[in-house]
Every structure is written in structure tokens, then in C-alpha cells.
Amino acid sequence: MSSELSYVHPTATSAWGTYLSQVDRVIPYLGPLARWSETLKRPKRALIVDVPIELDDGTIAHYEGYRVQHNLSRGPGKGGVRYHPDVTLEEVMALSAWMTVKCAAVNLPYGGAKGGIRVDPCQLSRKELERLTRRYTSEIGIVIGPQQDIPAPDVNTNAEIMAWMMDTYSINSGATATGVVTGKPIHLGGSLGRVKATGRGVFVTGREAARRTGLDLRGARVAVQGFGNVGSVAAELFAEAGAVVVAVQDHTGTVFNGSGLDLAALVPIARKDGVAAFAGGEHIAEEAFWDVEADILIPAALEGQVTAERARRITAKLVLEGANGPTVPEADDILAGRGVLVVPDVICNAGGVTVSYFEWVQDFSSYFWDEDEINVRLDRIMVNALNHIWDTADRHGIGLRTATFAVACERILAARQERGLYP
Ligand code: NAD
Questions:
Q1: What's the 155 CA to ligand 1 centre distance in angstroms?
Q2: For residue 48, pLDDT beyond 70
Q3: Active-site residue identified among 78, 102, 114, 196
């Protein structure tokens, strides 16, 4: 039996290759359920769609879109939609698989899915972006739905794009279906707390990891790579807790201030023009970010950023993976060898999907909770999940990533086994 798929060519550092090696590491801890482990290495379903749109100048452009449902054993598919010029089927497969693991790690009744379009959205006008989103939604309409697969925002997608997706799906299906996507605007069935949920989850898991390891957040130096939805919110919450955010990097540049960056000034500028436009710090070379003296490092941009070479230079004692798949397997081993604690993506950034779950539940019941209730429930779910994972890690003497995979994969494969194979 082979786990090689003819349609992808993973490498040791590619996203799917990284995921496969993470699965290999957990198999020894799965007991008799290991019999089903091949399930984890194959997406259940992968849809590739052509997305043709008319540009504002009258020409026709074609984009490649994807929706991958990695595993649906525990419930409908759940996972974001990414617009980025580097999106590939293989990347979307890995992101969908991490969603399967993440949803099971926090015990949400979902499988894992992900979508994406290979496009640079910065090159499109707002109207072109709307046409792109609507056509993509229509094309993947055969596999998504409130009970089938529920998209959400990811890199370069937001509440407005979710509103267009919801509207398009609703028109095509003949009934308003708010539950088809999460991360919607509040007045269209969105949930309070959703925008900040992923960054908040990064903070909550970081706060707990710091408490357990005796790291005082007051005065702790924090470096953040990726200053979008996840990175900026996490940075703000750490600053509120007394930490000092000393370095921030986005795709426009890297800004450093040893006495702490003024986030109230930085956030609006970064949102509009990127951190390169911020005057309140020293602008350092992209690669120098990884040498910054910090106690906590938050990679919150894209996959594969923590390479083996960078892992040898990182000064932080705690790495909080806001991004999906930021650390390649070799770097994971180097960090472990150097005594750096990594809170892995599959638990660290699970706050977003947790509040997406709250949104979906609220949409079905048409009864909406206040923000305090959302944040209290989010905190409780994240802390309980992390405690269970930490206990598992201690019991087996393994790292938090493999422990998270152990907790999650046991749930996924138990569901697989209980449902049985059809026919
Ligand atoms: P975003 O589009 O809001 O922000 C992405 C940030 O990364 C931007 O600041 C961008 O400039 C920066 N970036 C892009 N390429 C970079 C590079 N080469 N070097 C440095 N910075 C770079 O996206 P987001 O929603 O904040 O997502 C960030 C990460 O978090 C992704 O890995 C995503 O999959 C993950 N994530 C997001 C959510 C969510 O709810 N949004 C949930 C879970 C995980």
C-alpha cells in the first residue's frame, strides 16, 4: 500500500510534504487505529475549477480555483479560502488536512476543507474581485453548503468576500443560506468576536504556555511575522497583557523598535500601506527579522517560513504558530533540540474556526450571543484543548505538535472506524 498520489509531488519542505511527515510521526501513538492512517494521507475529494471573469478593460481572464475536502468523518468540511498568486492544489490539500486535524483537536463537529484561487488580488479592482468571488462560489457550489462544507476567510479574503459568497450560493440555491460561510459581516449572520478570534486564540494558547513554562508576559519581547488579521490582533493582545512588541514583518518590510512599537499608530498604517510606511521604528533587512532578540516569536504569515537555517538563529524560547504550517519538519527538530517550545498551528490558531463554529450554531438557531459570551467560551475551549494536549505530550514524552496530532487523529480515525467503509 502506498501513500503516493499521482497528482502531487511533495518535497521535504513543501506544505503537503510537511503534513505527511507530521502524520508519519503520530502513527506510532495511534494503537490499533493506525490501521486507518492511510485515510489521513489522502484527501477525500479535490475539485479544480476554471474561474473566468471579464476584467474592467473588457478582456477575459482565467484563474485556477480549488476546493479540497480532506476528511468528512466527523462532520461537514470547514476551512478558509485563500487568494494568493502562489496557491496550488498541493498547498490547498495541506491546508485542508491541517483543518481536519485542527477541528478534531478542539473537538468541533467538523471535517477539514480548504479553498483557494491562484490570483494576486491586489491587481484586481473591487468589482473584478467581486466577479471572481461570485464565479468561484458558483463553480464550487456543487460541493459546498451549510451541511456539506462551510468556507471562511483566510489570507487576502475577508467579511465582504464572505458576504458575496453567501449571496451567490443563496441565489443559486433559491434560499438565503447564512450558514454556508462563516466570517460574514455581523448584520448578515456574522458573529461578534470572529474577526479577532484567531489572534485571540494565539494569545490564549501563548498565555497558557507562558504560565506553564514560567515566562512572565509583562515585559516579554514579542516578534511577529505577518501583520494581517492574525498577527496584528495577537500583537495587540500581547501588548495589552504587558508584553513589548519589538519587531513586525509583513510583505512590504520589517520594522524594529527595541523599546516597543506603538501598535495604536502602526496598525492603521500597516492595514492601509503595509509596515514599510511606518515611521516609528528602524527598518531592518527582511532576513534580520529572524535574529531579533525576542522571548516570543509569532509566525503569522505563510507556510514554510521557519526553515532549518532560521531555526538555528531564533532567540525566542516560545514560538506561537499563528500561520498554518510555518515550520518545516527539520526546523521543528532543531527548535526542540534547542529547547524552544513550539505551540503548533493545529491548536494555536484554532480560535478562528472555533468562533466560526459559534457563528454557524448561531445562524442555525437565529439567536446571537454577546461578545463576552463568545470570548469566554473561546477561552475555555482553547484552554481545555491545550491542557488535554499538554497531558498527552507529557504522558508519551513527545512534543506538542505530535501530541496535538495524536489527540486529533485518534478522534478522526475512531469516527472513520465507527462509520465503517462503504460498501
Ligand atoms: P492576512 O491576509 O490578513 O495577513 C497576511 C499577512 O502576512 C499580511 O500582513 C502580509 O503582508 C503578510 N505576508 C505575506 N507574505 C509575507 C512574506 N513573504 N513575509 C512576511 N509577511 C508576509 O491573513 P491572515 O488571515 O492573518 O492569515 C495569516 C496566516 O494565518 C495564514 O497562514 C492563515 O492560513 C493563518 N490562519 C488564518 C486564520 C483566520 O481566521 N484568518 C485562521 C487560522 C489560520
A1: 5
A2: yes
A3: 114
Nearest CA residue ID for atom 23, ligand 1: 155
What single string gives the DSSP state of each residue in 128-170?
HHHHHHHHHHHHHTTT-BTTTEEEEE-TT--HHHHHHHHHHHH
Cβ contact 42:23 at 8 Å: no
Amino acid at 281: G
Q: Which of 278, 292, 279 is nearest to 250 (CA)?
A: 278
pTM: 0.97
**CB of residue 323 inside a 6 A radius of ligand 1:** yes
pLDDT at 218 over 60: yes
Residue 322 Cβ inside 6 Å of ligand 1? The answer reads yes
The answer, yes or no, to whether any atom of ligand 1 lies below 6 A from the CB of 300, is yes
Quote the CA–CA distance of 223 and 231 in Å, as a whole number.
10
* Ligand 1 binding pocket includes 304 (Cβ within 6 Å): no
pLDDT of residue 4: 87
Task: Report the greatest alpha carbon distance in the chain.
Answer: 64
Using alpha carbons, select from 293, 320, 221, 311 the residue that is nearest to residue 261. Answer: 221
The pLDDT score that the predictor gives to residue 2 is 52
For the question of residue 44 being annotated catalytic, the response is: no
Q: Grid coordinates 474556526 are at which residue?
A: 353
Identify any residues that bridge with 297 across adjacent strands, giving them in sequence order.
223, 319
Is the CB of residue 206 less than 8 Å from the CB of residue 231? no
Residue 346 CA to residue 353 CA, distance in Å, equals 11
pLDDT digits (tens, 9 = 90+) for 317-365: 999 999 999 999 999 999 999 999 999 999 999 999 999 999 999 999 9
Strand runs labelled E in 145-295: 149-153, 221-225, 244-250, 253-256, 282-284
pLDDT at 1: 45
